[in-house]
Amino acid sequence: GVRMRMEGREEMQGAVGLRCTWDIPPPSGTQAKWVRLNVGGTVFLTTRQTLCREQKSFLCRLCQGEELQSDRDETGAYLIDRDPTYFGPILNFLRHGKLVLDKDMAEEGILEEAEFYNIGPLIRIIKDRMEEKDYTVTQVPPKHVYRVLQCQEEELTQMVSTMSDGWRFEQLVNIGSSYNYGNEDQTEFLCVVSKELYNSPSGLSSEPSHKAKV
């Protein structure tokens, strides 16, 4: 008789366990449950709370088990067929909101994964970082182009006043009188002007013909 009662109680416990898990919605406290993710063969352990930091993400929907029916491995971890290398930084971003990368880790790789998991804030951060890097790499110091113009004294003011388009007056060299027009000596000047050419981040110069001038 005693043995029967024991078995009965075990059955009861099993049933109670089942009822707790399935029929009764879990109280809000148990939302911070541990979740195992098997990403491309590497197992990550994290909490539901971390995965749901970004409500719209694939990971949040996965662990809430709404519409995503994901396969699980033998340990019950969700199977995700993605590269585990880039998953660490993604998980850390959800944990503390910062993007921390090893120096040899490609941002493109992280971006690819962030887009797959649909983590909006992270996508924006990586794109900003990549643009900044692009900008600093291609931001070449300006080249200076110099021109020397020869003119006579009376043409000087007109020439300086009509200088435009980024040309800047640098220096004036008096080369004395080289011609004799009738009785008047005309003083000749060499006028040095310069212009800065910036290379824009796209690698194209703001002035397509600059090669000819340099």
TrEMBL record:
Extent of the signal sequence: none
SMART domains membership: BTB
InterPro entries linked to this entry: BTB/POZ_dom, SKP1/BTB/POZ_sf, T1-type_BTB
BP GO annotations: positive regulation of cilium assembly; proteasome-mediated ubiquitin-dependent protein catabolic process; protein homooligomerization
Any single Gene Ontology cellular-component annotation: Cul3-RING ubiquitin ligase complex
Domain BTB residue range list: 33-134
Molecular-function GO terms, alphabetical: cullin family protein binding
Protein name in UniProt: KCD17 protein
